[in-house]
């Protein structure tokens, strides 16, 4: 249903390094970029995550109530990717755990305070 989602940053170089490492663990890589954005994904036609500076030239800010959920395929991968995010400098927003029937997730914020959950449903 989604083609891509964009995560705003005020430090493109740092954000690209963070998401290259983090999303690389899920098989994603940089697919293309321009002067503002880098798009990560697993291949043509698959959903992508773009990281970059806002088009209007203003500072990037995180949305209150906005969160990106990334499915990672297993509970073990939730634990692994969550730990990797923290090791890369993300801050904890909720350790991995059961959040309801069939939903297992771990929550963190990147250094621009964007809230991310890595999850396994099922």
How are the secondary structure elements laid out?
Blueprint: E1 4-8, H1 12-24, E2 29-33, E3 37-41, E4 48-52, E5 67-71, H2 75-87, E6 91-100, E7 103-109, E8 115-121
Parallel strand pairs: 1-4, 5-8
Antiparallel strand pairs: 2-3, 3-4, 6-7, 7-8
Summarize the structure.
This protein has 122 residues and is an alpha/beta fold.
Polypeptide structure, described:
The protein is an alpha/beta fold and 122 residues long. It has one domain (4-54, 62-121): 2,3-Dihydroxybiphenyl 1,2-Dioxygenase, domain 1 (Roll). The protein is built from two helices and eight strands. The protein has helices spanning 12-24, 75-87; strands spanning 4-8, 29-33, 37-41, 48-52, 67-71, 91-100, 103-109, 115-121. The chain has a four-stranded mixed beta sheet with strand order 1-4-3-2, covered by helices on one side. A hairpin with a 6-residue loop joins strand 3 and strand 4. It is globular, with a radius of gyration of 14 Å. It starts with a strand and ends with a strand. The mean pLDDT is 96.
The fraction of residues assigned to DSSP E strands is 35-45%
In the residues, how many domains can be counted?
1
In order across it, which strands form the biggest sheet? 1-4-3-2
- Overall form: globular
Mean pLDDT: 96
The count of strands amounts to: 8
Share of helix, binned: 10-25%
Keywords:
four-stranded mixed beta sheet, 8 strands, 122 residues, globular, 2,3-Dihydroxybiphenyl 1,2-Dioxygenase, domain 1, alpha/beta
């Amino acid at each position: 249903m989604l083609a891509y989602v964009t995560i705003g940053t005020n430090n493109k170089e740092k954000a690209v390094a963070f998401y290259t490492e983090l999303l690389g663990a899920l098989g994603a890589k940089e697919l293309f970029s321009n002067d503002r954005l880098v798009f990560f994904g697993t291949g043509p036609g698959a959903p992508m995550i773009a990281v970059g500076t806002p088009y209007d030239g203003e500072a990037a800010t995180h949305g209150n109530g906005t969160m990106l959920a990334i499915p990672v395929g297993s509970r073990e991968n939730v634990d692994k990717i969550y730990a990797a995010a923290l090791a890369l400098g993300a801050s904890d927003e909720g350790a991995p755990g059961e959040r309801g029937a069939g939903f297992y997730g771990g929550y963190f914020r990147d250094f621009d305070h964007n809230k991310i959950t890595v999850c396994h449903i099922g």
